[in-house]
Amino acid sequence: MIEGFLRQDGRKGIRNHVAVAYLVECARHVASEIVLPYREAGAQVIGFPGCFPNDYAQKMMERLCTHPNVGAVLLVSLGCESFNRFQLAEAIAKSGRPVETIVIQKAGGTRTSVAEGQAWVAARIEELSRAERVPMGLEELVVGTVCGGSDGTSGITGNPAVGLAFDRLVGEGATCIFEETGELIGCEEVMAARAATPELGRELTRSVEKAARYYATLGYGSFAAGNAEGGLSTIEEKSMGAYAKSGSARIDGLIKPGDLPPKGGLYLMDVVPDGEVRFGFPNISDNAEIAEMMASGAHLTLFVTARGSVVGSAIAPVIKICANPETYARLSEDMDVNAGRILSGSSLTEVGAEIFDLTLAVASGRKTASEQLGHAEFILTYKSFEPIGPACLPS
Amino acid sequence: MSDTSEAPQLLRLAASDNVLVALGPVPAGPARITGGGVLTVERPVTLGHKVAARDIAAGEKIVKYGVPIGSATAAIASGSHVHTHNMKSDYTPTYVLDETSQGGRGD
Lengths: 395, 107
Known about the structure:
The complex is a heterodimer.
Chain A: E1 2-6, E2 12-13, E3 17-22, H1 28-35, E4 43-47, H2 55-65, E5 70-77, H3 85-94, E6 99-103, H4 104-107, H5 110-128, E7 134-136, E8 142-148, H6 158-171, E9 175-178, H7 188-192, H8 198-218, H9 225-229, H10 235-243, E10 251-255, E11 265-269, H11 286-295, E12 300-305, E13 318-322, H12 325-331, E14 337-338, H13 348-363, H14 369-372
Parallel strand pairs in A: 3-4, 3-5, 5-6, 8-9, 8-12, 9-11, 10-11, 12-13, 13-14
Antiparallel strand pairs in A: 1-2, 1-7
Chain B: E1 10-11, E2 19-22, E3 29-32, E4 38-41, E5 50-52, E6 61-64, E7 67-72, E8 81-82, E9 87-88
Antiparallel strand pairs in B: 1-2, 2-5, 3-4, 5-8, 6-7, 7-9
């Protein structure tokens, strides 16, 4: 059994953060200064850097500011940006969370904004520190998975081990989300065969075909130089490894960033924008993927890395599973699980069980390696999506 | 070198694969394969890289995990390193940095 913080909408959080959200890059410094003295106490910076209005950004920020791991929100506006801070503040207030907006141009500049913001954050942290955890069932837990810095070991150790943990989580009623359709290229057919209905299977296939077209237009696959250095030669090879994270459970639905899965089960997140290529690369770095997982309610993320990512995330803890034993030897302090030991005789089952057990412990409050090191990365950029079709969530 | 009591050095992921994966740094010469057998590796390769399990013709699919992961761009001799210099994606080109593209050659 795990324990979490009960929110007004009935969801439970596994952390109790004060989110300080900048609504344009011009307000980021003030937001960071506000958080600085309260980082250890649980204040974290999130935000959207752009100045142009964008439905995706508005939806993502609403989802993130009302994420179950967030207990209170301070919005930091420059004042002249296009982001609709009024709509965002209203959505947060409706969720029952304390919310305040500081407008730098009205508050009198940087110094006064920082002072006002820090006073508000200090008071909320004091209140949140008195909150108590309550029992939380696995059917209330949402777990995402991503991989970053993959290499030739990822598909053999870390990714299939996460797949086993996913199978067990789904079996016990949890909601699990995997993503990056651009890293499932070549896996369409085997994946579609696991869909709950044939119609959903066709939607899964279409989402990967869309990704292949999108990346073909960009001229690059979702493939970094380090992937090749570590032995991966093509996007299809990387995909076969990445796909293993999804385990073997039935796929219950296809969602887009910010859609909340309606019930427990396994879901694919379609992260590639709809329509013509407009805003560049779908996810510009790993934290963009994690932000989308969080926007769809993920309480924590299982992150498989082989070259050696050190990131964590604001709002939702990141459990780092190191696929490559040579990397683990160099970066062990940054890693939570040494999956590379599978190459020297440990079983996938044993490592999968370790990931499952650690997921439950982290959900109940145990700090991950990246949390202990103070990591709280966050990034969000422009995208556009059409709503999912009726076949995506069969009842 | 073919002493089977020692740990395997090359992983065969599926019976139909025409490449094997290095389980650690593998020196040139005979290397032990999981499930039995020995392959003579042409030159040293590093962890996670692939070597040809048999001769592969130019244009032939490279098969790993039992599925095609791309196509050979040149004839590849058994035991050779299989990577971006002699295979390509059937979807989008692979981007590499010149400074790190020698990765996998352990010599």
